[in-house]
Amino acid sequence: MRAATAARRVALWSFNFDQTHRGAMLPVSLKRVTSTDRDISPPPAKRRQVVGTASSNVVSNFFKPTSQKERVKVAFHIHDETLLIARYLEADTVPRPRPLKVAAFDFDDTIVTTKSGNRFSKGPDDWRWWHATVPGRLKQLNDDGYAIVIISNQGAVSLRADTKAPQGGMRSLNNFKGKVTAVLNALELPITMYAASGPDLYRKPRVGMWQQLLKEYGLTNESDIDRDSCLFVGDAAGREADKSSGARKDHACSDRDFAANVGLPFHTPEEYFLGEPVKPFVRTLNPSVHLNVEMTTQTDMSPVVFTNKHDVELVLFCGSPGAGKSTFYWRHMQPLGYERVNQDILKSRDKCIKVATQLLEGRRPVVVDNTNADIETRAAWVGLARKMKVPIRLVYFTASAKLCEHNDAVRALTGDLMNPEKRTMLPKMAFTGFIARHREPQTSEGFEDITKVDFKFQGSERQREQWMRYWLS
After folding, report:
1. Number of separate domains in the chain
2. Single GO molecular-function term (predicted)?
3. CA-CA distance, 205 to 201, in Å (whole number)?
4. What is the DSSP letter of 424?
5. Most buried among 37, 177, 204, 277, by the most CB within 10 A?
């Protein structure tokens, strides 16, 4: 009992960070501060509850005389439920005049890699430097007045106590904290680490971790940062496999995209630590391309703007989640008097058919705003149209799966700015599932005509700024 009580008591330390609430992914408001040469390290340590369990060593340390106790050198704090922040407390800092130079790094396969050779660490001791030059380069950056930060996606780390977890409770968190503690203790530099554990605003390439850094370091004005001298180093760079060197394809482009989102020069670990030349890379999606694509609508016969041809008709939408179907309805169909039937709202196809039947019986034109990916699903609506003796037409949304994922992430994570229906972000399987079921619609299925709609972004300048960022990790 005494040990358990001691563990709880000793777990009351951490350091104080600004408790800001997570909001929409909007540009940070920048305001000039008065001081131009003060140290910009986050606020000093303040006691607060630390997440995790106290080890026997911690309990033993609690009962030692003050003179014999080991000092806590690395403090951890959970911000906004999904962001883990760590800071090395005991290190000499050099003056950092404004504008500040920031050197930001990814963690795994950039600062460290595993000793075991596995992709993921087997435990807190399963790490080594990515290259022998890493510690020296980081020390030199500190000596040159840089603020060094680590910005890392850690989706495998759970920040919540979950008794159903296969490894039990907080093991993933404790292992990660042990690893981070060992690395920061080895470096002995004033480093702050931000680790995103959830698929939300903080996960790279989204800029939530960078925004949190700006708040904590007091960088409230654009002129507070020397962006030309800043840098971000990470391994998720969108590089293809290189057979000549045996290099594998990068698992993502999220580090390169993150650097682009926050406006930092980007380097891979090979480029920065080893001086290798820049290698070609490929982005799976470049949003800017879709700003210059005109929205086209055409039938099988000739290009036309969509119009209602009959007083009462059934119009079927076909397209992936995130393809712009609902936006098209509100902008083009609702003003023409069409009623909307949507399975996200009504929860089942049977309920959708029931409501559509009632509307058609009331002599109202109807739009079925669902994905309607396969022939079998569309056949049910063709059958309803025949039963009700009304024409049926189809609007086909052609946006690619990656573009649809991008649209969905922007919609879900920008709050009220672009999400009037307050939809949550869909899992990846929603898009892969559509692809698996999708069969391109044909007029031979029974449709009077098919209107194709290619995606083009439409919105305010503020919405455009958000949509133009990279959102997919």
Report:
1. 2
2. ATP-dependent polydeoxyribonucleotide 5'-hydroxyl-kinase activity
3. 9
4. P
5. 204
pLDDT digits (tens, 9 = 90+) for 207-256: 999 999 999 999 999 899 999 999 999 999 999 998 888 889 999 999 99
Within-domain flag for 283: no
pLDDT tens, residue by residue, 333-347:
999 999 999 999 999
Question: Which residue bears the tokens 């703007």?
Answer: 305
Range of the domain at 350: 291-467
Pairing of strands 147-153, 102-105: parallel
- Of 246, 255, 386, nearest to 314 (Cα)? 386
Report which secondary-structure segment, H or E, holds 57.
Answer: helix 56-63
Residue 319 CA to residue 322 CA, distance in Å, equals 8
Number of Cβ within 10 Å of residue 165's Cβ equals: 13
Binning pLDDT at 50, 70 and 90, where does residue 27 land? very low
- Conformational region of residue 314, where left means phi above 0, alpha means psi within -120 to 50, and beta covers everything else: beta
Sign of dihedral through CA atoms 167, 172, 177, 178? positive
| Same domain? 213 vs 310 | no
Question: Could you tell me the two tokens for 101?
Answer: 């130079």
Smallest CA-to-CA distance from 99 within 163, 30, 151 is with 30
- What is the rounded distance in angstroms from the CA atom of residue 364 to the CA atom of residue 116? 66
> DSSP secondary-structure letter at 108?
B
H helix or E strand, kind and range, residue 209: helix 208-216
Residue 236 contacts residue 256 (beta carbons within 8 Å): yes
